[in-house]
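Sharing a chain and its predicted structure for anyone who wants a worked example. Both blocks are below, sequence first, tokens second.
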Amino acid sequence: VGSNGDTLVADSSATVGLRWNPTTAAGKNVCINGAFDIWQRGTTFTNPSSAGIYTADRWVVYYNGNGTATRETSVKPDTSTYSYKVTATASSAGNDIYQLVEELNMEHLRGKDVTISVKVAGTVGLTPNIQLAYSTTANDTLLNTGTVITPTVVANPAINASTFVTYISRYSVPTTAKTLRIGL
């Protein structure tokens, strides 16, 4: 008998042709609609409210100024149908997109190291920021006042407007975290 959460898998090298495979979080994506494939609320949002509004499914945009959030069809990673395009005025700062990881999906993340990778293209000279924050309140709101987790490993290559590069950050999730907020 395997341990709780293990999966029975075929293995021709095992005596009986089967073995128990321990559950691992590696490679599992807790971010829903991470490729921005689903846009049920529309595809263009002009001057989104500073309180944050849902755009692509599960994603909230927060603007600290003026701009647009749109579903992009021409400049996108090779593996995606769309990308999420944020355009802001020069006086606009702190424009963010967020997704909440609710308490129900947190069990296998507490006390673990997690990696967030994001494919980014954009204005040369700008540096996007991946952020992970946690709250000790169950299912806290997206614009919560959670505690920002400092990344332990970060890869931030230079960006340009037509080629996507991958930003990678690694975080240690506290055992007390009940909700995570993924932000870019």
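Comments welcome. The mean pLDDT is 82.
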